[in-house]
Amino acid sequence: MIRLGFALCGSFCTFDAVLPVMRELAETCEITPILSLAAAETDTRFGLASRFLAEVREICGREPILRPEEAEPIGPKGLLDILAVAPCTGNTLAKLAAGVADTAVTFACKAHLRNARPIVLGVSTNDGLAAGAANLGLLLNRKNYYFVPFRQDDPRGKPTSLVADFTLLPETIRAALEGRQLQPLLLPPN
After folding, report:
1. Bond into 87 cis (ω within 30)
2. Is 0.90 surpassed by the pTM of this model?
3. CB contact set of 119 (below 8 Å; sequence gap of 6+)
4. For the segment 101-111, what is each residue's pLDDT rounded down to a tens digit?
């Protein structure tokens, strides 16, 4: 079985799209869930944090990593074959681009990269074609980072917003384990 780290950040509107994919991956992967505190603790119009956490626990069969110090052993112990961050918010994208490791998710990425293993990013950000574009560009050119193909989710209403097609996450993971970026990277609008 693939040892998959599955990190989730606070793009609450995508949780309903991501959790079924996590459930699908749990059939072929041993999943270690990693959550930002925003994802783990924030009740929103999209749902209660307690319900979300319960579903993640049920799918993965284990408690999620919530703090940087809990993520630190990922590197030295080589705990994961691959790490997916889906959804990956603009905030997390910026931190990864700048090398900042101050959350469970960013620290897990730092620890995992220590072993030169792949990280898959499923972006979900309202400023991906604005302030976040520079961070996206930096990570596209960094070794061991792979992206779930993405698109503008609402070109007229939110022209700078990008979101990954999370149904492509399993295929992107397989490609990343082979050292290649799934193509096409840029998808047409829905």
Report:
1. yes
2. yes
3. 82, 83, 84, 85, 109, 112, 113, 144, 145, 146, 176
4. 999 999 999 99
Q: Provide the pLDDT for residue 189.
A: 86
Task: List, for residues 50-98, the tens digit of each pLDDT value.
Answer: 999 999 999 999 999 999 999 999 999 999 999 999 999 999 999 999 9
Q: DSSP for 56-123?
A: HHHHHTSPPB-SHHHHGGGTTTT--SEEEEEEE-HHHHHHHHHT---SHHHHHHHHHHTTT--EEEEE
For residues 36 and 112, give the distance between their C-alpha atoms in angstroms, rounded to a whole number: 16
Taking the domains of the chain in order of start, what are their residue ranges? 2-177
Q: Judge if the upstream peptide bond of residue 76 is cis by omega within 30 degrees of 0.
A: no
Q: 2-177 in CATH: which number?
A: 3.40.50.1950
Report the DSSP pairing between strands 150-154 and 158-164: antiparallel
pLDDT at 190 over 90: no
Strand partners, 3: 30
The closest alpha carbon to 104, from 51, 64, 132, 139, belongs to: 64
